[in-house]
Amino acid sequence: MMAGAILVQNTAWSGAKQAVDALKLAGLLSPSAIRTADPAALGAVIRPAGYFNLKTRRLKSLCEFLGRYDDDLARLFAQPKEILRAELLGVWGVGKETADSIVCYEAKQPLFVVDAYTRRLFHRLGWTDAKAGYDTLQDLVHGALPADADLFGQFHALIVHHAKAHCRSKPACPGCPLAARCRLAQGESL
Q1: Is 158 in contact with 140 (CB distance < 8 Å)?
Q2: Sign of the torsion angle spanned by Cα atoms 98, 101, 106, 111
Q3: Cys-Cys link to 52, which of 13, 43, 187, 189 (CB 3.0-4.6 A)?
Q4: Can you tell me the distance from the alpha carbon of 173 to that of 95, in angstroms, rounded to the nearest whole number?
């Protein structure tokens, strides 16, 4: 499912899921199948995820990397999280959020995934500055919670759920369970 981490970049999960389903239907979910697929054909299959030409190259790049491990995810994921993350960050098209998603959700190692929802919520709650960087936000969570991949995954899922329901770019403050703690809901100008 590492393909999903690439396909969801800069798009909603619904489009990425359509692309993953299409890859499965086309028999293109394995790293070897993606490596050998015609780029134009692969792009057509993943079109629902958007940016399909770019994501085709990124998928192929990730699968070339996996080939160095003989497509053995257990061997790849057995590495310490710092080494695994560094290797993933060396793959063209894989940034911090994508690498950390793979480490947390796929390798089941404790790294919190920071995204736009996390940035928005933490800033509105007054926990961080609007310009706080990825590492600052990640360190905040790592310092506040026990290092547990399932806990980090659940916390991130709750942030995403809350942000989609209330803490949108145009907030829906009425009924928000965090309104009493939110600077924006309390009328502060952010």
Answers
A1: no
A2: positive
A3: 43
A4: 32
Mention the CATH class of domain 2-106. Answer: mainly alpha
- CA distances 151 to 27, 59, 88, 101, 156, Å, are 33, 28, 22, 13, 8
Task: Tell me the C-alpha distance between 54 and 106, whole Å.
Answer: 23
For residue 154, give both structure tokens: 């659940």
Rounded distance between C-alpha atoms, residue 183 and residue 173, angstroms: 11
Residue ranges in the chain modelled with pLDDT below 50: none
Write down the domain spans for the chain: 2-106, 116-181
Q: What is the residue type of 129?
A: D
| Other beta carbons within 10 Å of 75 | 10
